[in-house]
Give the backbone structure.
Amino acid sequence: MKNAAFFLVEDEALLRMMTAEMLEELGHRVVAEAGSISAAEPLARTAEFDLAFLDINVGGKIITPIAEILADRGLPFIFVSGYGLEGRPMAFRDRPALRKPFLIESLADMIERVLGNRPPGAGW
């Protein structure tokens, strides 16, 4: 799948920028991004995208409120963490996760796994 729209929530600006560059290199686009839970909340409620990447720990806060909003909207998301995948919020242990740092190939594989058989705009 090419030309998918992404929402990024990552508190480390450099990591957010590197992820956005990888996505663009893969033929996708970032349509919304946030570096804090408070900045992510209105975007999670209103932004139109195909897939979100959610850092598990954003500025010392767990991403659960944003994951809940996206789940209620039926939008797919992938957790990202440098501390291990067991840090996923308990209610979302079944959701996919990618360990930081990751290579562009790992990112592409995860996107294909989640969106590969889904038309753009389809829910979770």
Remarks:
- The chain has one domain: 5-115.
- The beta strands are 5-9, 29-34, 51-55, 57-58, 61-62, 77-81, 97-99.
